[in-house]
Amino acid sequence: MDQLLITGGRPLKGAVKVSGAKNATLPAMAATVLTEGRHIIRNVPLLRDVKTMDRLLVHMGMDVRFENSTMIITNRGVRNFEAPYDLVKTMRASILVLGPMIARYGRARVSLPGGCAIGARPVNLHLMGLEKMGARIELNQGYIEARASRLHGADIYFDIPTVTGTENLMMAASLAKGVTRIENAAREPEVVDLAEALNNMGARIYGAGESIINIEGVDELNPLNHTVIPDRIETGTFIVAAAITGGEIEILNARAEHLEAVITKLEETGVACDTSARGLRAYKRSPIQARDLKTMPYPGFPTDMQAQFMALMCLAEGTSVIRETIFENRFMHVAELKRMGADITIEGSIATVKGVKALKGAPVMATDLRASASLVLAGLAAEGETLVDRIYHLDRGYERLDDKLKTLGARIERIKR
Ligand code: EPZ
After folding, report:
1. Residue closest by Cα to atom 27 of ligand 1
2. CATH assignment of 22-227, among 3.40.120.10, 3.65.10.10, 3.40.50.10190, 3.60.40.10
3. pLDDT 10s digits, 357-411
4. Mutate to test the pocket of ligand 1, among 164, 166, 233 (most ligand atoms within 8 A of CB)
5. At a CB cut-off of 8 Å and minimum separation 6, what does 287 contact?
6. What is the pTM assigned to this prediction?
7. Do 342 and 353 contact (CB within 8 A), yes or no?
């Protein structure tokens, strides 16, 4: 397993281009199941999770070509309707092929994703919605077995605004007979991006980005031709990198409007995020002050930025109370940050962070995607060397992050193991 060796203490300076959004790419790839033909997706990041989805689509019978951030997916008909456990267990987002497979082919056998480091990650809301649309679903030996003649429209209410649940049902409803209404839908920019991609395929989706989405089913769709939005979480990570190292970074291609809650909160702490002609310019305006945080569904502060924000609060003046409301176990970066001298206590879903003067480099271990980003950020600011182990977690969601940080002046080396 590769490691990252970071020598901290250098302000990061320069410009870096943010890659396409992982969480917009994965649903767009799943949407190619909805119709045969030659699909094109641009601005695709080179990530482990994208490779996993690529392997899943090939397993199902698709042909996938990928170069220079452009993916060509040729669907000549799905031949294998099973998403096997050994693929799904490495990436929960594999569940996104379930809705399209049932809608287009009337059958699917998808492994239950199982939990992951940050939580149980149930899919009951996905299944509830599909059943309301007429799918017959059984759970056998850890697999979701689904059948449907033709899905029909339904009124679906999510008691939690699930992101991939909204995306799965939006895709399924696109080919259903009649109108589907999703209430308490997720409002993330990635949901809006998928709706735009589907509408360009000929779907009739109204209201994506709001809490109520209406989908008028059509009989068939045209191939996808879509450019995914920039990754707002990668953008937020670079904003924190500028602040925590006392540098200044211009983030090219960044979309400030996807990060309002993050930018507002960071500016409260003393971080500056100015829009520039090419994207966003981030730097530390004044000594970083502690601020409290509560993660919320979009448009609130995203859970995927909680660990990165916590790294910044470790070195802030004052005490920050951070409340994680989305996932039940998303504080695994805390033990590792404490190895670096951070002063953090956890009580249930609340972490209390007392700012310290400095962090000290140490060997630490990544446990999940955003926790690993938090450890890299802490290492960039710490005195001395930090060795981050198991960085395959980082590679799931960040395209060449070490190379990008190196161009900004970071002393960071990837150690191949
Ligand atoms: C998406 O996961 C993202 N992944 C996650 O990003 C992100 O953290 C999460 O949304 C929240 O924003 C992708 O888009 C591929 P949810 P998802 O369904 O869809 C509960 C990253 O770092 N829930 O919105 O799986 C669930 O337990 C990843 O890039 C149910 O109870 O998240 C959680 O508490 C990590 N039943 C809450 O809803 C369901 O059927 C939100 O989960 C579905 C979800």
Report:
1. 121
2. 3.65.10.10
3. 999 999 999 999 999 999 999 999 999 999 999 999 999 999 999 999 999 999 9
4. 164
5. 270, 317
6. 0.97
7. yes
